[in-house]
Amino acid sequence: MKKYKIFISSVQEEFKKERKALKDYIHGDPLLRAFFEVFIFEELPAADLRADKVYLENVRGSDIYMGLFGNEYGIEDAGGLSPVRKEFLQAGESGKHRLIFVKGSDDSVRHKRMLSLIKLAGKQLVRRRFNTQSELNTAVYASLVNYLLSTGKIITGPFDSAHCGDAKIADISDGKIRWFLSRQRAREILFCLRTNLLLKS
């Protein structure tokens, strides 16, 4: 089974512990590790490639963009864009499923451009705030389970009432339909015979 790829985006140094702990948490949870794999940039080997090209390619190649936003904004390019903002914008342009988690509640201590990014994200999607690693793990778990439910990868209701979004008319077997109808017809005949016998007795 193909796993969904999660791209964790943040200022690396500010969230060094959280990034590693979050990856370990997702890969350590029996349910989440069955469906997800996590990419964090710092685990890539050294390569003769531009860093911005690599991280943007990995955003495009991911299924889920997970942004951890804090106080710092990161190193800015000539246009005032940091890697975190570029990754967020790329995820939006690529139509990725985006999850944003904001650390802390005191916005007065944030870099003004990080505060601007948080506000931009807030206009586009629902964010969650956290203070501790445990709170982050809990929020991420809830969001990823919700993602699995929304994509039909896990279901909570009866199996036979579940929606099969990937099914096509060509997937239906003529032979199995004929088998089912003949079996159903045989049951109806048997039911009628038993009913007639009961009425006569």
Search tags:
single chain; 201 residues; alpha/beta; Rossmann fold; 2 domains; five-stranded parallel beta sheet; 7 helices; 5 strands; 13% strand
Which structural class best describes the helix and strand composition?
alpha/beta
The overall strand count is 5
- CATH homologous superfamily grouping of the largest domain: Toll/interleukin-1 receptor homology (TIR) domain
How many discrete domains?
A: 2
- Along the chain, the helix and strand elements come as EHHEHEHEHEHH
Backbone shape? elongated
The overall pLDDT average reads: 88
Uncertain residue segments: none
Distance linking N and C termini: 57 Å
Q: Could you say what the CATH topology of the largest domain is called?
A: Rossmann fold
Give the helix proportion (percent range): 40-55%
Largest sheet: 5 strands, parallel
Q: Under the CATH scheme, which class of the largest domain?
A: Alpha Beta
Radius of gyration: 25 Å
Which band does the percent of strand residues land in?
Answer: 5-15%
In the CATH hierarchy, the architecture of the largest domain is 3-Layer(aba) Sandwich
The number of distinct helices, counting runs of at least 4 residues, comes to 7
Strand order of the largest sheet: 2-1-3-4-5
